[in-house]
Amino acid sequence: MALVTTKEMFKRAYEGGYSIGAFNVDNLETFQAVIEAAHAKKSPVIIAITENVIKYFGITYLRKIVEAAVEETGVEVALHLDHGKSIEICKYCCDNGFTSVMIDASAYDFEENIRITKEVVEYAHARGVVVESELGAIAGIEDGEVTGDKYGVFTHPEQAKEFVERTGIDSLAIAVGTAHGAYKFKPGTTPYLRFDIIEEIAKLIPGLPLVLHGSSMVPQDRIEMINKFGGEMPAAIGIPGNLLRDASKLAVCKINQGSDLRVAFTSEIRKIFVEQPREYEIRKYTAPAKKVVREMIEDRLDNVFMSSGHAVEGK
Ligand code: CO
Ligand code: CO
Asked: Is the pTM of this model over 0.85?
């Protein structure tokens, strides 16, 4: 196998009723945790990289690391730019080994979002790179005022259809109830997803892979561990796995999780720092933290994305 685009993996996920996990990695350990989990579970996987992470690693390091992952494990992996905020950063990634880019021009009005997205699509497709774009307000959705028609602040299906047709994108990030960060829902409220909108979009645009952002589950045992060992993450609430699993059976082909990796990694390190105050050898705390992330992802590949066993034959 090799570094691939998401085209084939999405096609199989769409038809097979599962989804592909897109995991935000922040360092080499979380990068390896994702690759090792995907390898162990024979699952396709997406490595999601933000602009800040590109600055942190350096783009050449990123490309070489993912190449090393493929060479070592044969894992079926896509290297994806998460939330590219400009045409320039998307082009830069297309030119430097990324197989997928997200242009996020959702802050602009509809026409400007189309214009920017279209320019990225033309550049990317000419280089064999696929494009995801966003329509609707995902960030901070829990504070959004639901006004007007039944779609409120969420992605409007008719608008989504026009957007896809005019831009030629390969996948669409939709707003249906998820939110970025570790504090998605207010305490006491019941997390939900607008499955009716997902189904309407799927009916209007058959075959189009849909993407859920802000879909960390925020494991409460890990939040408790952080708070127990000196951290402060009060009332962090995520999206329940069963909602993500149900979405995976539908047209949702890519589900993004970032906060969960950070929470898992951080909680384990906090525990070790408190319980073993004399430990200063770096691997003595990064290795257990990496293992916790890996195990969490393996569980998700089996039980939430249901992508285990669906990788194209690797090593
Ligand atoms: Co996002
Ligand atoms: Co699906």
From this structure: yes
Give the DSSP letter string of 167-226: H--SEEEE-SS--SSSB-S-TTSPP---HHHHHHHHHHSTTPPEEE-S-----HHHHHHH
**Which ligand is nearest to the Cα of residue 9, counting in written order?**
2
- Taking the CA of 21 as reference, the closest ligand is 2
CA separation (Å) from 116 to 85, 108, 131, 169?
A: 10, 9, 12, 12
Mark whether 82 is an active-site residue.
Answer: yes
Q: Please tell me the distance from the alpha carbon of residue 209 to that of residue 206, in angstroms, as a whole number.
A: 9
pLDDT digits (tens, 9 = 90+) for 40-83: 999 999 999 999 999 999 999 999 999 999 999 999 999 999 99
Residues of the chain with pLDDT under 50: 140-147
Q: What gap in Å lies between CA 31 and CA 48, rounded to an integer?
A: 10
